[in-house]
Amino acid sequence: MKDYLVLVNAESPLPSNYSPEPLKLVDAWQGIFLEKQTAEALSALLAKVDPDHLIQITSGFRSIREQVELYQTSMEENGLAYTNAYVAKPYCSEHHTGLAVDLSIKSGAVGEIAPDFQDHPVVEAFLKEMANFGFIMRYLPDEKTEITGISHEPWHFRYVGLPHSQRITEGGLVLEEYLEKAVIQ
After folding, report:
1. Which residue from 95, 103, 12 is spatially nearest to 60, judged by alpha carbons?
2. How far apart are CA 129 and CA 9, in angstroms?
3. Cα separation of 82 and 98, whole Å?
4. What HEC string does the chain produce?
């Protein structure tokens, strides 16, 4: 069984020989892939909350090379402080696993690093149901930034599976806290 609770961050980078589980194409036009179960859960969630197809996937699986390019481009365009706040270094991005997805609203700004995904009724519906489909908002508001190392990203979601998603969301936790509590208990 896939380890949907794998922790990937600056303190827990992926090994250089890491290979993601089988990926599934979720957006042929943009060439976006997700891990198979993640893709199926996201499809079911979107079918429930977004019948008008207002939500679009802006990012899924990223290779190490793509993360290197994204990080370098952000450094050039946004500077060090912004890049370190919002862009994971290569081998430290959950996108390498295929378990992370960035979303936007079709009528909003679709930036590669910070897409528009807030203040819309379909977003409210998504947030209300996401945990029931195995997803968490990975980077919570600023009081959790010190724990995750990444600033609040209301567009970035992580598949962790059930019942973990419900426990994490109900507890107002980030993945690091949940995994620490699981080890302690």
Report:
1. 95
2. 26
3. 24
4. CCCCCCCCECCECCCCCCCCCCEEEEECCCCEEEEHHHHHHHHHHHHHHCCCCCEEEEECCCCHHHHHHHHHHHHHHHCHHHHHHHCCCCCCCHHHHCCEEEEEECCCCCCCCCCCCCCCHHHHHHHHHHHHHCEEECCCCHHHHHHHCCCCCCCEEEECCCCHHHHHHHHCCCHHHHHHHHHHC
Low-confidence ranges of the chain (pLDDT < 50): 1
Question: What is the pLDDT at residue 184?
Answer: 56
The token duo for 161 is: 């599976």
The residues assigned a catalytic role are: 153
pTM for this prediction: 0.90
β-bridge pairing 55-59 and 32-35: unpaired
